[in-house]
Amino acid sequence: MSNRMDTIWSKLDRKSTAIAEFTMRQYRTRISTWVVLGAASVAIFLMLLFYIEAMNSEIEAVDNDGDSFDTDGDGYPDGQERLEGTNPESDQSFPDWVEPDPPEKWINEDDIDWDTLSNGENYVGKDDDGDCENLDTSSQRDTNDNNQECDVVVTIDELNGTINIDADSNVDEDPDEDKYGKEAGHRAFILGIGKFGIVYLLGIFLPLFLATGLIREEMSDGTIHYMLAKPIARGEVLLYRMLGYIGITWPFIIGLCVIMGLITGFTGPGDGFFRWGDIGVWMTIAWAAMLVSLVYGTIFCGFGIIWKNGVILAILFAAWELGMAFVAILSGGDSSIRYFSVIGWGMIIVDSGVAVCWPDNWQLIQSGLWGGGQGEENWLGEMDYKPLPAAVPLETFSGDSNLGVSSWLAFVISSLVLVLQGALSWFIGQSIFKGKEVD
Predict the structure, then answer these.
(1) What are the C-alpha distances in Å from 44 to residues 32, 47, 192, 276?
(2) Which residues, 6+ apart, have CB-to-CB distance to 203 below 8 Å?
(3) What pLDDT is stored for residue 116 in this prediction?
(4) Residues 157/370, Cβ–Cβ less than 8 Å
(5) What is the pLDDT of residue 370?
(6) Which of 5-19, 163-177, 218-232, 403-417 is predicted most confidently?
(7) Where do the structural domains in the chain lie, given as residue ranges?
(8) What average pLDDT does the segment 388-417 reach?
(9) Cα-based distances in Å from 244 to 22, 35, 208, 398, 418
């Protein structure tokens, strides 16, 4: 009896495998498949050219704190005078015991060095150039009265979008615009191309052209009869057709992300020859795109079963998902409506991966938005701080899962939700397929 059952199941397994292999062979032999995959690759790699150009362009240095200026005209930069203990506003007081520094030495001399305070809201910048530590008394070195000498406390009010700076005497920040801009631009590109280009556009573009007609085309051509003639339920036919679709799209997504990860890993800024910390982010993007393409594929395939012009329904659904993609990205994860979409959960996967792989991403954004304290007073008497290069794009494409759990758990939850969405879409699709009359 056991051998007989094994024989039956092995035959069923061979027949079901044959359907998946037949589907993949169909994809491989159709010119349209390679046109779709080729067009997707070209679009992604064209965006990569802008990234490579940006990484090889130098960002102009800006003297954020004015240390390179010679206010009193005595030939010594203000930063050097403060460091040596002379008055930078009097041409009669200057450190004649040392040679004047070139002004460019006091540009980008005090890069941002952040420590997070216990309340998680304030960020403390250290005095890197020593002009505060040179002051005589402790009270002079701790004018903000926080019991820490030579620091600057920056409070970010996310609700009102304001920044408050409380610095000790002579403590300023003059970050390296090129260094910051390259790092922030690198991360912004990965998140932008990853979230919008790969997770959304690829995630919905591939199913739209490759999955909508997965059953419909066989019904129109009459070849579906050959599949249904086998002792396999219609739901299984749909399932194994989807496996054939996955066998084409998932390796393509993984391969594309690996190539992008290698190019950006070797081209991106950093002290090492390769940015190993980005690998996890790219694999997270690939995983999100794979799950999103699975859900869209089952939904669009179902649309094709319902109606011979199911692609119209798929385009309408894609338009809804496009809106949800913008909501998920522009809201930074604050909008609850994104939970009523597929792409919203895909974005949560990426945001969770970023929180794990780039734990300093939030500090990098805030330090860039503050811009080292460079700003102008507006008509309300408030300071408008000029962001550092690429700080705003990085903030735009960064988000939070906002699920109230750890990043790892948010990653698991969002993955499970997408799997359940795919399973539910398959169940509905196979139920419709069962009741569909095939001419």
Answers:
(1) 18, 5, 11, 22
(2) 288, 289, 292, 293, 296, 343, 346
(3) 55
(4) no
(5) 74
(6) 403-417
(7) 15-58+178-434, 68-106, 113-172
(8) 91
(9) 8, 18, 15, 34, 19
